Every structure is written in structure tokens, then in C-alpha cells.
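Researcher: Can you fold this with magnesium ion in place?
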Amino acid sequence: MSNTEQTLSIIKPDAVERNLENEIKEMFKNKGFSIVKDKKIQIEKSEAEKFYKVHETKPFYNDLCAYLSSGPIVVMILEKENAVIANRELMGATNPKDAQEGTIRKKYGISIDKNSVHGSDSSENAKIEIDFFFKD
Ligand code: UDP
Ligand code: MG
């Protein structure tokens, strides 16, 4: 059974700062994703805190939210068959040191905090995250 779905992707500040937007978008397109919508924005720390609320008890929460709001990001709705898992596979492991060859984080990630991309981790969260950035 086919399962075309959408997921939210973010090109994080470390990658936008290094002008990697187009290279990363090419990696998505080469894997068969359509970029349904995209926009370059900068968010307030308070918005990052809302977006990453699931991590609020983690020791890295404050730095993570400061970081995501520290510079421009590119938010995208990606569409493909099983897009959520396909995007997680293309992103690679959270820590670029553990990421497989051919993944975005292996190629571009600098460290566990500056790991270049975000991707929704479930279909349910994808809907919530897409609404967070594109509800208007
Ligand atoms: N993060 C961090 N330190 C950690 C774990 C995570 O700075 O020890 C950051 C990292 O940027 C990661 C984000 O917090 O992408 C969200 O963590 P999650 O476990 O959800 O990883 P992801 O889903 O992004 O792979
Ligand atoms: Mg996550």
C-alpha cells in the first residue's frame, strides 16, 4: 500500500551560515523528495523553546533553543513515500560522528549540537511541526 506523506525538515543555522542550503536541498531532491513549501526565517528563542518542548527536561535544552534561534534557518515541508523515515535515514544519526556515509549529517554535520538538519521523528509529530511553521 502506498503511503505518500509529508515531514518537516529544518536546515539549521550552522548549515545556512555555511551556504549549504542548495547542496542540502539537492540531496533531498536526489532521494526523490519534493520540497512542497520552504522559507528562510529566523525565530525567537521563545519559539524555539515551544518547538523543542519535548526536550525541556534535557540538559542541552537551553543551548539547543539558543542555537536554533541564533541565525537564519530554512524550514521545509518534504513529501515522498514514507517521508518521515526516509528523511531520518537521509539525515543520519544525531551525532555526526555516528552517521553513515551518504547522510547529510555525515557530510555536513560539525558536532552533536551543530548537526545541520532537523527532521520530524514520527508521522504524528510531522503534522504538529508542519503546522507549527506553516499554519497561516
Ligand atoms: N542535542 C544536543 N546534545 C545532545 C543531544 C541532542 O545538542 O546530547 C541536540 C541536537 O542538535 C539534536 C537536537 O538536540 O538534533 C534534538 O535532539 P534529538 O534527540 O531529537 O535528535 P534528532 O531528532 O535531531 O536526531
Ligand atoms: Mg528529534
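Model: Folded with magnesium ion in place. Residues 4-134 form a domain with the Alpha-Beta Plaits fold (CATH 3.30.70.141).
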